[in-house]
Amino acid sequence: MPQLSVVVPVFNEQDNVASLVEEIVRALRGVTPFEIVYVDDHSRDNTLAILQQLKAQVPELRVLQHTTQSGQSTAVRTGVKAARAPWIATLDGDGQNDPADIPRLLAKRDASPPEVRMFAGWRVNRQDSGSKRWASRIANAIRTRMLRDDTPDTGCGIKLFEREAFLELPYFNHMHRYLPALMQRAGWQTVSVPVNHRARTTGVSKYNNLNRALVGVADLRGVAWLIRRAKITSVREV
């Protein structure tokens, strides 16, 4: 049985699939027993066909497909629910996250107390456009002020977390942007770990500054409400 499941949500990423799978395999074979769970969010290009071809070459690869487009958060949750390992690593499907950082996150986990259930990537040298970097800085500053989650880069796609802890979190669309705050709300600790970040070389981004801002306002207010209403109770058997 795998000890780590690498969950990768994708939508129209036909030019990035094969190279990213190869990088994941290269980073993890010989490090830990693992599986790769790709979740195709009803792509309209050849993403699914390429994944099906890769399954014959990569025994660790599993492929799931949404029958309707459902969004990144739902794709991540689909992959986590299907995963067979107790710990999950997530990667964006565009190739900007570096799979070579996963062993670093695993090492950080092994050196941390059990109360830490999430290790969030922190893109200290982002390779996005200037406007996207500025928009993220503003959004992170507002989010930190409202949620006090002490996470400098909650939008980074590479994360390592315990499967069971994730599945206990409240589910809603766009929840993937607030995972550290939601983990802390559940009573767990989170740690941010500096990771590599790469420029997108093929394909196009599925988000822009405007649509992220529009949904972010409502989501941020909702998460802040969830945090205010949280109740954590210690339990002992008597």
Automatic annotation (TrEMBL):
Q: Which UniProt keywords apply?
A: Cell membrane, Glycosyltransferase, Lipopolysaccharide biosynthesis, Membrane, Transferase, Transmembrane, Transmembrane helix
Quote a single Gene Ontology cellular component term.
plasma membrane
- What is an example of a GO molecular function annotated in this UniProt entry? undecaprenyl-phosphate 4-deoxy-4-formamido-L-arabinose transferase activity
Q: Which InterPro entries match?
A: Glyco_trans_2-like, Glycosyltransferase_2, Nucleotide-diphossugar_trans
Domain Glycosyltransferase 2-like as annotated: residue spans: 5-166
| GO terms, biological process | lipopolysaccharide biosynthetic process
Q: What is this protein called?
A: Glycosyltransferase family 2 protein
Point out the coiled-coil segments of this chain: none
PANTHER family linked: UNDECAPRENYL-PHOSPHATE 4-DEOXY-4-FORMAMIDO-L-ARABINOSE TRANSFERASE (PTHR48090:SF3), UNDECAPRENYL-PHOSPHATE 4-DEOXY-4-FORMAMIDO-L-ARABINOSE TRANSFERASE-RELATED (PTHR48090)
Lineage: superkingdom:
Bacteria
Keyword flag Phosphoprotein? no
